[in-house]
Amino acid sequence: GGGGGGGGGGGGGGVFTGDLGTINVVANADDANDEALTPFSAVKPNYLADLHTQTPADTINLNFRGGGGTCTINNAAFVNEDTFDHTLNVGQVYQYNAIGSDGHPFHLHINSYQISQIDQGDMQGGWFQVGDWHDVLFTEASVRFQTDSFTGHAVIHCHFLNHEDLGCMGQANIVGTEGTPGPVVSTYTTQFLAEAEPVPVPSPSPPPPPSPSPSPPSPPPPSPPSPPPPSPPPSPAPPP
Predict the structure, then answer these.
(1) How far from the centroid of its chain's Cα atoms is residue 102's Cα?
(2) C-alpha angle 140/144/150, rounded to 5°?
(3) Tens of pLDDT along 141-153?
(4) Contact at 8 Å (CB) between 184 and 93?
(5) What pairing do the DSSP bridges indicate for beta strands 72-73 and 58-65?
(6) CB of 43 within 8 A of CB of 196?
């Protein structure tokens, strides 16, 4: 994630002192004696339900074409926000066949997609596989997604942003009743492991209260008035 995190050092605050964890290094991993862990089932959102065995309501080709720093999607460059490549209904499962996305990485806004079909030669050593969820698809494959809850514009574009800026972008128009959920409810039952009893982090000791400020010193008493200077002696009388 981005964001203006700012440089280090600012903001004040105390310095944590304590144990964050313990690493026990053993000669053989089979000899490691792990603490008891308690399994639990994770509740995942509807839009991450497994779709690769579902029958889509429609299948649409997304053909990324072009070179030399530009491309189009289905032979059309982006026109304006009111021009759409196709229309989808909210609350359905759809499939996109991404063609040419091995040269123009495919990115979709609003709805996450799952790979439903891919040729062995396009898996790139196993990085892309059926059942995987990806944010950017830099290979050719078929993907499925649910139009879950949200209506309106869904942007499709090449993730080379200079290509996008030059028009390699399109839109799907999702219509229907806002809030209609995707039809496939998440049924994940994968067991995850969590620590049975997290180790409490010791709270740092509170800082000592500040010492009271010393009272300002009293001003010195006023000096007594200086005595008047002595009168000069009388002048001697002149001679007769």
Answers:
(1) 26
(2) 125
(3) 999 999 999 999 9
(4) yes
(5) antiparallel
(6) no
